[in-house]
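Sequence, please.
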């Protein structure tokens, strides 16, 4: 299966982080002098000097900077110190990203979000990094799936409102970014065995970016699980009932479910084969999916197996555009 994110995409995001840091204001070589004619001003001056002397070592400077801002929120030098905190925090986050230290990223990111809950840059990078380093890693990890879902949903809200993360690759592609974020939610729901919810997110993602094979591949995988479960249920019913000239309603309903899920697998994977046709990264996956798809199509259409290629060609002509219902051979509520 293709990696979720390309190396190029990762580098572009890291470059965005660097650009983000470059925009942060830096502390000048000397701060403005502070009058010391009363104890309060003297205490502020001492706190400021303690931070200033330690500022080149962020492990020492950052705690002192935070202490200064907390104790003197209206201090004469609070702007200088806040700029330092933003820069040092960004550098710490960047380092954690590069070392794939998800716990540290979350710690630093949460500090920034506590000060500014609307910081789309941190929400975007946290959603991106947890996906890259855990949800789509090999092996996968869902240790921070709850945090990932929170950051992802918040980022989606802001982006759908029209906001753009400054650290995102340029030029910014709103639909492609939302596609990626909805895939995050689908992965998390799959891990929780919420297959229908995962499908809902994959359908949403595909509606945003019909050129991404991953949505149709995963759609087929989920429907295949549902198909296999339906088949086991049907085959577990008495053979006499299954072969009766007039099947009971429950037998007919069980068989309809098997066929409905089979048709949904066919539809999703036919779309996958169409969209991934010229994508070398999916070559081995296409071979596996193609074999399973062909066998399933023959099961559903034993008299016209050639119809599969026509279906794939139809979706190629549509450039992977998703639909709300199955157009393969049965009307369903799935893509």
């Amino acid at each position: 299966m293709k990696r979720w994110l390309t190396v190029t995409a990762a580098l572009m995001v890291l470059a965005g982080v660097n650009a983000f840091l470059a925009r942060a204001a830096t502390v000048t070589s000397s701060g403005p002098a502070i009058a010391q004619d009363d104890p309060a001003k003297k205490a502020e001056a001492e706190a400021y000097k303690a931070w200033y002397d330690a500022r080149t070592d962020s492990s020492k400077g950052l705690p002192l900077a935070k202490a200064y801002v907390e104790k003197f929120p209206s201090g004469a030098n609070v702007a200088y110190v806040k700029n330092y905190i933003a820069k040092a925090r960004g550098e710490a986050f960047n380092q954690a990203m590069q070392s794939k230290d998800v716990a540290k990223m979350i710690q630093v990111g949460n500090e920034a979000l506590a000060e500014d809950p609307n910081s789309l840059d941190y929400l975007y990078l946290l959603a991106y990094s947890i996906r890259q380093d855990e949800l789509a890693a090999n092996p996968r990890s869902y240790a921070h799936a709850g945090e990932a879902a929170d950051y992802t949903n918040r980022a989606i809200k802001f982006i759908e409102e029209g906001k753009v993360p400054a650290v995102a690759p340029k030029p910014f592609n709103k639909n492609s970014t939302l596609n990626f974020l909805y895939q995050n939610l689908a992965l998390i729901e799959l891990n929780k065995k919420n297959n229908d919810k995962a499908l809902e997110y994959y359908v949403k993602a595909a509606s945003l970016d019909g050129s991404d094979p991953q949505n149709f591949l995963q759609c087929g995988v989920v429907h295949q699980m549902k198909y296999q479960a339906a088949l086991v249920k049907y085959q577990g019913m008495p053979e006499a009932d299954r072969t009766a000239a007039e099947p009971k309603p429950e037998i007919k309903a069980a068989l309809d479910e098997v066929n409905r899920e089979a048709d949904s697998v066919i539809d999703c994977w036919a779309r996958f084969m169409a969209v991934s046709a010229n994508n070398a990264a999916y070559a081995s996956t296409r071979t596996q999916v193609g074999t399973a798809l062909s066998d399933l199509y023959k099961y559903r259409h034993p008299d016209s197996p050639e119809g599969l290629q026509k279906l794939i060609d139809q979706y190629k002509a549509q450039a992977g555009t998703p639909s709300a219902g199955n157009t393969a051979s049965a009307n369903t509520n799935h893509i």
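Residues 249-275 form the longest helix (27 residues).
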